[in-house]
Design brief:
Layout lengths: L7 H33 L2 H26 L4 H24 L1
Length: about 100
């Protein structure tokens, strides 16, 4: 793994566990929002599903950038935050419609 020191291995493990749980929880939200959109064809639900999908993708991508490209943590956070912002904008738009 990238960024290893004696004290950071536990932190890295916790980071991976939390990211994995976020993928499971976020994936279920995306699944049910997409299922509701397909059932109703309501565009608001489509934007809601897309927003949560972008949030989930950004979380995954931010972690991958940090872990596998061996970039500083701040770069992974910036990548993730950009997708989180976009996802929140889609979710807000879905609620405003």
């Amino acid at each position: 793994m990238a960024h290893t020191t004696a004290d950071s291995s536990l932190i890295q493990f916790a980071f991976l566990v939390v990211k994995a749980l976020m993928v499971v929880a976020g994936g279920s939200v995306v699944y049910y929002a997409t299922k509701a959109y397909r059932r109703t064809r309501d565009k608001s639900l489509g934007y809601l599903a897309a927003g949560f999908g972008v949030l989930l993708f950004g979380s995954i991508l931010g972690g991958l950038v940090y872990e596998f490209l061996e970039t500083p943590l701040v770069i992974g956070v910036i990548v993730e935050s950009t997708f989180v912002l976009t996802g929140f904008l889609l979710i807000a738009y879905s609620l405003k419609r």
